Amino acid sequence: MDFSIPIRLRIEFDEKTCVGNKACMKQDPSLFKFDSIKEKAILIGAKPQQQDKRFYILEKDFDSLNASRALAAAKACPVNAIQVFDAQKGVALVSNKVDLSSYKEVHVQYDDEKEFVLDPKGYFLIRADHEKKNLEVAFCNEKNKVALKVVGKTPLEIYQTIINKEKLELRADHYAYLGRELQKAFTALQFGLEYVQDNELDLNKKH
Fold it and tell me: Which of 63, 122, 184, 204 has the fewest CB atoms inside 10 Å of its own CB, making it the most exposed?
């Protein structure tokens, strides 16, 4: 869209939907800030609606740079809590509506026993430490040889550390496996359940 001339934008922010991951603030800190009490974003200068005090609207003129930042902030929201409209034309520039006009639907079929292939670079050992409330991940690059151990409290911080900081460069399905098992281990810690890697959680079996 041509932002060579100022454009009037209408920005709508749904506080109920916001999960406070701060992605919008990283894109446009002049438009969004963080409420540490509510753990939600704040749309700076916006007015709450009478019908719903958790729904905010800001309408004003933006130059090209700030309009681009506002759109980037809205697009960065992982839960579609922000919409942006061309206020004069009434056209949605960033919408929270899901486009179902054209998509491919796949009914999956997968047999893990037949199709599983071990990653040649190594494998993970995952443990739930109930005493310290920690998640532990060991990566073995050879059989029974631990090359890396990562300890943390949440699945997110652990797999982000492994992917982005340690850069093991494993297969995508191996990282998907790691995320799945970490979430199971995390759930086991939260509810005091026994965690056994590769097994489904038994909700009746306490640690």
Answer: 204
CATH T-level fold of 7-94: Alpha-Beta Plaits (3.30.70)
Domain locations in the chain?
A: 7-94, 114-191
- How far is the CA of 134 from the CAs of 187, 188, 189, in angstroms? 12, 11, 8
* Amino acid letter for position 66: N
Q: What is the DSSP string of 138-179?
A: EEEEETTEEEEEEEESSHHHHHHIIIIII-----HHHHHHHH
The Cα 189–Cα 195 span in angstroms is 8
